[in-house]
């Protein structure tokens, strides 16, 4: 009979090996551990066996050809030396080139938050640097046999689609910031729903929004905000929805699920998110003339220089100074309508009588010329020559989807509408 602590041949076949390879690159040795399995034949004594197995040395390690990529972002107060230290670069020649060469000036001027990618050899020498400069161009700095060279390459971009939902707790921009929306996307949303929602007066705590939009990326870095593909805004319990549809190779617009344009022919406001300092009234005490008179327009208080937009497509009928209006622009639209923009500090470059302007186009800047006690825009909306309250008048709709494109529209926007429906009741601040 064999001693009790001697392993049978059958037990040896059941031996499990666990091999630790983590030390191979440095030592070239593998340590193997054999552990007796637990079975109903367990002996009274178990042993752990340790055996060293020599392995051939890796050719890559032997030749020291391994390279490493590291990413870092520019921080406040960064110097070239500090940035290279965080990138684990130990290369005096590279440091000297990056500090002194005119070709690397864009690196030294990089804005905070910009991302840099570096390729480093095992000894810490710099093989390559890659980044997008402040103009969005891709810069590549590479080590050659004769030194370092810098080149500008075509930017490789990709489109990524994001979804965000948010809830109004105080202001629109506070909610979009909390949801992770960029300002350009937030501005697009305000423009899309600007014909139905007055963002000066209509927002309520608890209003919700959902946005599906594109972002352009290069080398893993976001370089610009793209177009909103679909959006929904629930204001005071009423849901407004819009999806983008390309109507031709060069044009597109936003439509409701049934194909109606969500754009009104006129925006409700010519200024984004300013305060209404005086509304439409048949009798108001004039702060400059010190007497009661009709105020047949709306005043938007805003800092001097705030951009003023045309509220609809049209043709400029007048540009210049006129009485109490001061610097004023008057635009005719669709034959029946006229809009007036008064007290401007300046006009947009090149704007002139007879010029066609588009909805949302910048035509001037807020000022306090004419009879104005402070900086603001005086805005009037006329129908057949008679002033009407621009905050209450029913605005005409833009053209709907044509009958010929109805089927293509329904097929092309079905998935976007499904995304909005899926996210309607989702309380997520950030969903990629």
* SS summary, helix count: 9
Query: What would you say the CATH architecture of the largest domain is?
Result: Roll
The percentage of residues in β strands lies in: 35-45%
Query: What does the overall shape look like?
Result: globular
The largest β sheet comes out as: 10 strands, antiparallel
CATH topology of the largest domain: Nuclear Transport Factor 2, Chain: A
The pLDDT mean sits at: 79
Give the helix proportion (percent range).
Answer: 10-25%
Task: Tell me the domain tally.
Answer: 4
Unreliable stretches:
1-46, 55-63, 277-286, 288-293, 427-432
- Helix- and strand-based class? alpha+beta
Gyration radius from CA atoms, angstroms: 34 Å
Would you state the CATH class of the largest domain? Answer: Alpha Beta
Number of strands: 25
N-C termini distance: 69 Å
């Amino acid at each position: 009979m064999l001693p009790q602590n001697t392993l049978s041949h059958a037990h040896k076949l059941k031996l499990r090996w666990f091999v630790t390879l983590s030390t191979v690159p440095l030592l070239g040795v593998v340590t193997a551990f054999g552990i007796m399995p637990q079975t109903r034949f367990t002996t009274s004594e178990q042993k752990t066996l340790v055996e060293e197995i020599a392995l051939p040395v890796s050719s890559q390690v032997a030749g020291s050809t391994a390279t490493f990529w590291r990413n870092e972002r520019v921080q406040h107060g960064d110097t070239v030396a500090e940035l290279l230290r965080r990138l684990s670069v130990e290369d005096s020649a590279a440091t000297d080139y990056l500090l002194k060469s005119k070709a690397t000036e864009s690196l030294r001027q990089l804005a905070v938050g910009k991302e840099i990618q570096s390729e480093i050899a095992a000894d810490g020498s710099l093989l390559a640097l890659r980044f997008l400069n402040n103009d969005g161009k891709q810069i590549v700095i590479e080590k050659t046999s004769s030194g370092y060279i810098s080149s500008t390459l075509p930017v490789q971009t990709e489109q990524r689609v994001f979804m965000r939902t948010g809830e109004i707790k105080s202001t629109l921009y506070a909610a979009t910031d909390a949801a992770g929306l960029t300002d350009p996307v937030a501005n697009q949303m305000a423009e899309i729903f600007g014909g139905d929602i007055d963002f000066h007066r209509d927002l309520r705590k608890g209003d919700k929004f959902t946005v599906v939009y594109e972002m352009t990326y290069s080398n893993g870095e976001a370089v610009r905000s793209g177009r909103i593909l679909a959006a929904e805004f629930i204001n005071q319990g009423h849901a407004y929805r819009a999806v983008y549809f390309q109507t031709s190779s060069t044009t597109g617009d936003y439509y409701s699920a049934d194909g109606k344009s969500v754009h009104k022919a006129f925006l409700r406001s010519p200024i984004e998110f300013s305060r209404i300092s005086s509304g439409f009234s048949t009798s108001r005490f004039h702060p400059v003339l010190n007497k009661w008179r009709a105020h047949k327009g709306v005043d938007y208080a805003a800092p001097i220089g705030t951009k003023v937009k045309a509220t609809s497509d049209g043709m400029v009928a007048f540009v210049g100074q006129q009485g109490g209006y001061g610097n004023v622009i008057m635009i005719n639209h669709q034959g029946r309508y006229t809009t007036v923009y008064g007290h401007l500090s300046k006009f947009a470059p090149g704007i002139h009588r007879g010029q066609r302007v588009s909805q949302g186009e910048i035509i001037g800047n807020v000022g306090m010329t004419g009879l104005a006690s402070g900086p603001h825009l005086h805005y009037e909306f006329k129908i057949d020559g008679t002033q009407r309250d621009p905050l209450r008048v029913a605005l005409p709709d833009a053209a709907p989807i044509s009958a010929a494109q109805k089927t293509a529209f329904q097929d092309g926007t079905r998935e976007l509408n499904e995304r909005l429906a899926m996210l309607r009741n989702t309380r997520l601040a950030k969903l990629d």
